[in-house]
Structure formats: C-alpha cells, structure tokens
Design brief:
It contains 13 helices and no strands. The chain is mainly α. The chain starts with 6 loop residues before the first helix and ends with a helix.
Length: about 375
C-alpha cells in the first residue's frame, strides 16, 4: 500500500492526534494553576524529540519506525522492538476508545451497554482505516478548521456569559519558581506530546519530504498553545480545585454557557464534535498498527481488509478489558502505563537509537579519514 499525503495534512493529523483525548482532561493536576507554563515548556521539549525522530528517519529515508529497527539492531532484536511498537499502537487505540466510551456512558447514553456502543464505533473506525491514510488525512484538514472555529466560538460564548470567567484563579503565578512546575509536569512529555511517535509511521508517505521537520515543529508549538488555552479555560471558569479533580472538566465548562433561553447545554453538541476527534486519533493509531504489521511480516495488500477487521476486534477487546471501571482506567494510565510503556516506547528507545546511529556515523567518518 503506497499512499501519499501532503506536509499540511501531516500537520493536521499531528494536531488532531493528541488533541483527540487530551482536550478532555486537566492534564497534570499537580501543576495546578501553573499548568500553562508546564504545557509550553514540554512543547519545547517535544521539539527535541521531533528532531530525534526525524534525524533517525533521515538516516533511513523511506522507512517507518517498524521497518528501520531491524536494520539498526539486527533481525531478531530489531523485529522484537518493531513488534513492541505495533502492540503499543493498537493498545493506544484501545485506551482512547475506552476514554470515549466512558464519556458517552457518562453524558449521553448511561443505560446503553458499553459493548454495543464500542462495537458501533469500532465498525466506523474499521471502515475509515480500510479507506486509507489519504482519506483520513484529507478529512482531517477540514475537521481541523471546524475544531479551531468551534474552539473560538466556545471562548466567545463563555466570554459573553455573565460572571463565569475569574482570571484571579490563575494566581499566584509560579509562586515556588519554575523548577517545581517542571518536575511536577514531566508526564506531559509522554501524554500528550509523546504520542507524536505514531507519526513516524507516516513520514515515508509525505510528498514534500523536505517539509516534514518544519511541519512537525510547527505542530508541536500549535498543540502546546491549543492545550494551554484549553487548560487555562478550565482554571478561570471552574477554579483550580474543581478543575483538577473533575473527570471531564471540559464538559463542566461547557455547562456554564447559558445565554438567555435559547443557548445552553452545549456539552451535548460537543460530545458529537469530540467523537469525531476521537475517530481521527483512534483511526491513526489503528492504521499505524496494521501498517506496521504488513511491513514487518510482509503481508500482501490484498489482506488489508481482513487485517482491519482483526485489529478492530483486538482494539475493542483491549478497550473493554483493560479496566473494570473508569477510575481504574485512569489510575492504570497515569500510574502504570506512562512509566512502564509510554516512556520506553516514546523516549528511551528513540533516544538510544539516535545516539547509536550518530555515534556509529561519527566513528565511520573518522575511520575513513
């Protein structure tokens, strides 16, 4: 399967990838009202990792992270690492699906069996993945515009809603300095910014190869700004205490919008919008897992449809089985997954690979001289 996307489409899916779930939550409660600083600091840190990802790709142009690992570490060890990435991508898709199944159960359909809702969404995701990356990326360009316009509209509506915004909630600012905020916000390097590792599967399909790094760098800063504004909105409307303890602060914020008798309960409308955002994030993760499988095991493209169905079932099974309830799901994600899975996959392995390649290249150049 050889599809093509533009650098602008890469930028669009990059912004939508973590946005699909990160917008729901107050990302690091430990940083409290100083989360704005933590988000922007780790957006800059994410630039470093985009440099690392693209530097590795520069040494293996036309290869995805699944295909160049065996070439770097040898067939056995490299294939094991590649399998780890495939499993991670499908697991991430399952986690995000569970996030939105819990959202639907909480706000719109509390009596509907979660299996039924999950199966319905999974069928939609399978169809989207089956249609291919080009279609997903093309729709993402349009949807990103809708997201930005909707976000601006939300800010305007909250601004004109009386006695809702309290800027004093942002005080005191950095009362203990910047180092405690940086140390408390370290998980941001993994979620949301570490999820950009999924995009390494799509670098070979970008038409303007020379614009990949520029798109990724711009995407990091844009994502940081969007999420910073989002979390500041939680603080100034809900207050630090409520925003940091609520499961879905975005929807509590939406419920504050009330203009006359004709404009209220925007949370229901935003559920629909966010489900579309979830579609992109889950689809991209699932597509990456299936694509990696076809590349690693050299599976014929004619089996793409069967793989879509198989991985869709695996994703749904993971989603329903990873936790008994939503609090357990969140606890596992924050206390276990980030430390044991996310950091090695997103940061440790790419950094070690980057150092290994560049030291090897340096030594080779010295020997030739």
């Amino acid at each position: 399967m050889r599809e093509k996307i533009t650098a602008h489409q890469l930028l669009s899916i990059m912004i939508l990838l973590p946005y699909g779930s990160a917008v729901l939550f107050f990302l690091t409660p430990e940083t409290k009202q100083n989360i704005w600083f933590a988000l922007m600091f780790y957006a800059i840190v994410a630039l470093l990792f985009q440099f690392i990802y693209t530097n590795i790709y520069k040494n293996y142009p036309g290869e995805s992270i699944v295909t160049y690992m065996p070439k770097i570490y040898g067939k056995i060890l490299g294939s094991i690492i590649s399998m780890m990435y495939i499993v991670y991508f499908v697991y991430l898709a399952g986690r995000v699906l569970r996030d939105f199944l819990e959202l639907i159960r909480t706000f719109t359909m509390p009596r509907t069996p979660i299996l039924f809702t999950g199966a319905l969404i999974t069928v939609t995701i399978i169809y989207g993945v089956f249609k291919g990356l080009e279609n997903i990326a093309s729709i993402a360009e349009i949807f990103l515009i809708i997201v930005l316009i909707s976000s601006l509209a939300l800010l305007l509506l909250i601004a004109v809603t009386g006695d809702v915004i309290h800027p004093s909630n942002l005080l005191p600012v950095l009362e203990d300095g910047i180092l405690p905020v940086i140390s408390k916000g370290w998980k941001l390097a993994s979620f949301p910014y570490g999820e950009f590792i999924v995009l390494t599967m799509f670098y070979p399909y970008v038409i303007e190869q020379n614009k990949i790094r520029k798109a990724l760098f711009f995407g990091c800063i844009s994502e940081g700004l969007i999420l910073t504004i989002n979390n500041i909105l939680f603080i100034v409307t809900l207050g630090v205490s409520f925003a940091t303890t609520n499961n879905f602060p975005l929807f509590e914020t939406l419920r504050l919008v009330h203009i006359g008798e004709f404009l209220s309960r925007l949370d229901i409308l935003y559920v629909i919008l966010l489900l579309e955002g979830a579609f992109f994030k889950i689809s991209l993760c699932l597509y990456a897992a299936i694509l990696g499988t076809t590349q690693l095991f050299k599976i014929n493209n004619k089996d793409w449809g069967a793989l879509c169905i198989l991985f869709g079932i695996i994703m749904l099974t993971i989603s329903l089985s990873i936790a008994k309830n939503y609090p357990e799901h969140i606890k596992i994600g924050l206390a276990l997954i980030i430390n044991t899975i996310n950091l090695p996959i997103q940061i440790y392995i790419p950094t070690i690979t980057f150092l290994f390649i560049n030291i090897k290249n340096f030594l080779c150049s010295r020997s030739h001289n």
